[in-house]
Model the fold of this input.
Amino acid sequence: MVSELIKKKLTVFFRGLDVDKNGFVEPEDFDHIANNFARIRGWEPGSSDYENLHNQVISIWENYWINADINQDNKVSLDEYLESCNQQFVADNNSSAAWEQPMAALFDVIDINGNEQIALEEYKQLLTAFGFNASGYEEIFQKLDVNGDGYISKQEYLQLLKEFCGENPEATGNLFFGYY
Ligand SMILES: [Ca+2]
Ligand SMILES: [Ca+2]
Ligand SMILES: [Ca+2]
Ligand SMILES: [Ca+2]
Done:
C-alpha cells in the first residue's frame, strides 16, 4: 500500500495533468497541454512543431494513462489513478518504477531544444503549460539543479523523479512539480 506522503505527491501530479480542473485526467487535458505549450512557444496549430508536440503528449495518455482508466469511461479519476498506482506498486514488489515511466516521458516534452538539459525557462514552461503551481519556480529550480550548473540534466531529472515517487519527506525531488 502506498503511503500518505506518496499519495499526496501523486495527487499533485494528477491535479497538474487535470489541466481543465474537472476532476479527471482525460484526452482533452493533453490537448490543452499541447495548446498551452504551443501558445507559450508561439507555434501555430497545424504547424509541424505543433503536430509533433501534440503527438508526443497524446502518446503519454495512450501509453500510460489509459491503463489507469479502470471503469473504461475514457477518463481517469483521482481514485482510479491512486488505485492503479497502488496495484502497480504491489505487483512490482513495492517499486514505483511503473509510475516513474510516464513522468520520465515528459523529459522530451520539456526539453524543447533537445539538448538533454532542462533550462530554467523550459522548467517554467512545464509548470505553466500543465496545471502545476509555478509560484517560487526559480527557487525550486535552483534546488533541483543539484550540481549547480544551471541546468537539470536527464540524469538529475531521473534521480529527482525517484525522489518524487519515494518516501523521504525531505527529498529535493518532492518539489519537482511545484510546491504542495
Ligand atoms: Ca480534466
Ligand atoms: Ca475512468
Ligand atoms: Ca533544453
Ligand atoms: Ca545540473
